[in-house]
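Re: weekly structure request thread

Next one in the queue (164 aa):
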Amino acid sequence: MGLSEDLERVALQERELQLARMDEQMAWEIGLRLRTMAEERGLAIVVDVRRFGQPLFYTALKGTTPDNVSWVHRKSNVVARFHRSSYGVGLTMTQKNSSLEANGLPINEYASHGGSFPLTVKGAGIVGSVTVSGLPQRADHELVVEALCGILDRDYAELKLGPE
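Done, posted below.
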């Protein structure tokens, strides 16, 4: 799948994966689903679910490092700034032959790598993010999408990215 197709698919994911609510219970459900998926698959990831300005769920599985914490922070800052998934922002930057740094954003605070996804509430807009760090960026992104599909009872096969 090419860059344009991935961008279209990510935009579809961002439009379609909307929550009815985003509260502490929903954060727990999203975070726990991701943690359970990671444990079942033997993945070493960090999971962060937050409303902007308020962490609601955090877990680090065996094999993660402080670097993963930094990646979570930087990727979730991209979602807060652009109201798009960090992967979508990164793909857009690649398409435009640009970077966050070229747009004046410091790399110690922002990372346009996949793994952070906007939490959109129907009728309210984007209120937070769910972020995964520990896998290659496309896999981080897709793990979040798969978990949100499960929470929303959506068919992941209809929304997942195509083959690389």
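Helices lie at 3-16, 24-41, 66-82, 86-95, 137-151, 156-159. Residues 31 and 57 are 6 Å apart (CA to CA).
Next request, please.
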